[in-house]
Amino acid sequence: MQVTIELIDSRAPGDSSVEYVATLTTSGPEIEKGTTDTADARVQATTRAWKALILGRAPLEDHDEIEITGDSAAVHALLEGTRLELETPEPSSE
């Protein structure tokens, strides 16, 4: 499964976007800079919205700065494979 991700830098309005190709494999996602014509889905997003998805685990449907064309299930699978699992530290017994 492949997803093309076009990110637009939220900090610099008017800057050109950067494209990445994410391929989901049995060993996990592989993401590299570039483009492909064979992607199952294409995502256009600001860096702010993408960070909220990956770091903040925000629901994909809650962002108006994200546009998906193609197979949305592929985008959901990519997010599940790349979201960071942040561990909560155990309270100290002192």
Q: Please, could you describe this protein's structure?
A:
- The protein contains 2 helices and 5 strands.
- By secondary structure, it is of the alpha+beta class.
- The chain has a 5-stranded mixed β-sheet.
- 17% of the residues are buried.
- The model has no long low-confidence stretch (mean pLDDT 79).
What is the helix tally?
2
List the uncertain runs.
Answer: none
The pLDDT mean sits at 79
Beta-strand level of the residues, as a percent range? 25-35%
Number of strands: 5
**Helix content bin:** 10-25%
Biggest β-sheet: strands ordered side by side in the sheet: 3-2-1-4-5
Give the termini separation. Answer: 49 Å
- Morphology call: globular
Strand-pairing-aware structural class: alpha+beta
Radius of gyration, Cα only, in angstroms?
Answer: 15 Å
Largest sheet: 5 strands, mixed
Order of helices and strands: EEEEHEH
Short description:
This protein has 94 residues and is α+β, with helices and mostly antiparallel strands. Helices cover 20% and strands 34% of the residues.
Secondary structure blueprint with pairings:
Layout lengths: L1 E7 L9 E8 L2 E6 L7 E6 H8 L11 E5 L1 H11 L12
Parallel strand pairs: 1-4
Antiparallel strand pairs: 1-2, 2-3, 4-5
What are the key terms here?
globular; five-stranded mixed sheet; 94 residues; alpha+beta
